[in-house]
Design a protein that fits this description.
This protein is mainly β. It has one domain (3-127): Ribonuclease Z/Hydroxyacylglutathione hydrolase-like (Metallo-beta-lactamase, Chain A, 4-Layer Sandwich), CATH 3.60.15.10. It is 10% helix and 40% strand. It contains 2 helices and 12 strands, in the order βββββαβαββββββ. It has a 5-stranded mixed sheet, covered by helices on one side. A hairpin with a 5-residue loop joins strand 2 and strand 3.
Length: 144
């Protein structure tokens, strides 16, 4: 089974002057492969390296990078992961982890579906680019 770790929570703040400050959720999936979903802004480079170091992982060890869409706050550090395969859509990365096209924030959105066990229960997480959500965790038969 895979382990899902949110390295950084995303946020979106709109200010009275009409400007906005936003960043994506950055998620690490550990299983048969190491997968990072959404690499934040270019200004977050050191934060990502530090978070991976705390997990005993170097950027060179990441097998796959998935960006849920192509906004700057989701792709800013893709260049850290030069050994990784960068995935767009319709791909099973390893047993229990697949990337699917999904309706969302932009026309090219994808969602990463992760099958795992949480608190002894089988569950499926959906990493959407907005949040990391367990789907129908009470009834595995309802999973996508």
């Amino acid at each position: 089974m895979c382990e899902v770790t949110v390295l950084f929570d995303g946020y979106s703040k709109k200010f009275d002057d009409g400007t906005m400050d936003a960043n994506c959720t950055c998620t690490l999936i550990k299983g048969l492969k190491l997968i990072i979903v959404d690499t934040m802004t270019a200004w977050d480079r050191e934060r990502i390296i530090e978070a991976l170091t705390q997990q005993n992982i170097e950027p060179a060890n990441i097998d796959y990078v998935v960006c849920t869409h192509s906004h700057a706050d989701h792709i800013g550090n893709n260049n850290l992961f030069t050994n990784a395969e960068h995935i767009v859509d319709g791909y099973e990365l390893c047993p229990g982890v697949k990337v699917v096209a999904s309706a969302g924030h932009t026309p090219e959105d994808v969602t990463v579906l992760v099958d795992t066990t949480k608190d002894g229960e089988k569950t499926r997480f959906a990493i959407t680019g907005i949040r990391v959500l367990p789907l129908f965790s009470e009834d595995i038969s309802l999973h996508l």
